[in-house]
Amino acid sequence: MLNGKKIVVVMPAYNAERTLQRTYEEIPHDIVDEVILVDDKSVDSTAKVSKSLGIITIVHTENLGYGGNQKTCYKTALEKGADIVIMLHPDYQYTPKLIVSMASLISEDLFDCVLGSRILGEGALKGGMPIYKYIANRILTLYQNILIRHKLSEYHTGYRAFSKKVLETLPLEQNSNDFIFDNQMLLQILYANFTIGEITCPTLYFKDASSINLLRASKYGLEVIWTTLKYVLHRWHIWYCPLFQPLDDRVKKD
């Protein structure tokens, strides 16, 4: 715990048997109360390794996708009484050593959400991010910052920490089960006027680290563009989008 708040790490997993133990061992267990892994019907021994490490393990009977996996992660964390939830990929692309810093910023009530940014500093390219992904990240982030009128270093990191209030407020079931879930969730956080902090996050790109191919990445990019347009249209009451409509009452109150 930190400041009396229960901290739960959730790991959405798919075929992570080779990197899971290394990731788990670097989690700061002195402050983390529980670790939950949701196995999205892997074809390897991810679930077996997870259980052997003593991790709370949930196995999907069918593959729901990256977003569908996260929905189970957050629902389970809240059921376990989490006050702060950190989403950590079990592929060791993001270092678990930042969990203390990320959780501290929320436990001190400085931010509602904290992102581990690969773009702040030189973490992305130095860690091996493909140049085409780096350029796409910068273009999409600029596009979103301009339209949303916010300023983040990136909208596409998979390393995130949330307060309990954020997860209880957002209509996550409205979101996609695919990779665009991350971006939809972030735009919902901004729409609901929650605060977001960022810290520099070194990352590693290597053979066993998960990564989507060029086709899936292109699809994701197009979905980011469309999701951002829906955000703007809904914000200006031009076209109502179910991703944000459940949050309208909260926006009016704030």
What is the overall silhouette?
Answer: globular
Helix content: 40-55%
Q: Count structural domains.
A: 1
Give the biggest beta sheet.
7 strands, mixed
Would you tell me which CATH topology applies?
Spore Coat Polysaccharide Biosynthesis Protein SpsA, Chain A
Count of runs of 4 or more consecutive helical residues: 10
**Uncertain residue ranges:** none
Kindly report how far apart the N and C termini lie.
29 Å
Trace the largest sheet across and list its strands. Answer: 3-2-1-4-6-5-7
Task: Tally the beta strands.
Answer: 7
Q: What is the element string, with H for helices and E for strands?
A: EHEHEHEHEHHEHHEHH
Instruction: Quote the average pLDDT.
Output: 93
* Spatial extent as radius of gyration: 17 Å
CATH class: Alpha Beta
CATH-defined superfamily: Spore Coat Polysaccharide Biosynthesis Protein SpsA, Chain A
The CATH architecture name reads Alpha-Beta Complex
Structural class: alpha/beta
Beta-strand content: 5-15%
Reconstruct the topology from this structure.
Elements: E1 7-13, H1 20-25, E2 34-39, H2 46-52, E3 56-59, H3 66-79, E4 84-87, H4 99-107, E5 113-117, H5 123-126, H6 131-148, E6 160-163, H7 164-169, H8 181-191, E7 196-200, H9 214-235, H10 248-253
Parallel strand pairs: 1-2, 1-4, 2-3, 5-7
Antiparallel strand pairs: 4-6, 5-6
Helix pairs in contact: 6-9, 8-9
